[in-house]
Amino acid sequence: QRKVASNTLNRLVYENTILKEKYNSLKKSTAMVNESIVDILNKMDNILIMNNLPPTSSVMKEMGIGGLESSSPDENFLIMDPDFKRQVQEISTLIVSTEKRVELAKQLLAKISTSKKLNSEMWDNIPMTWPVYGWITSGFGTRISPMTGKQEFHPGLDIAQNIGEEVISPADGVVIYAGNRTGWGRTVLIRHEYGITTRYAHLDTIRVSLYQEIKKGDIVGTVGNTGWSIGPHLHYEIRVHGTPVDPMNYILTRKD
Question: Rounded to 10 degrees, what is the CA torsion of 236, 46, 216, 214?
Answer without folding.
Answer: -80
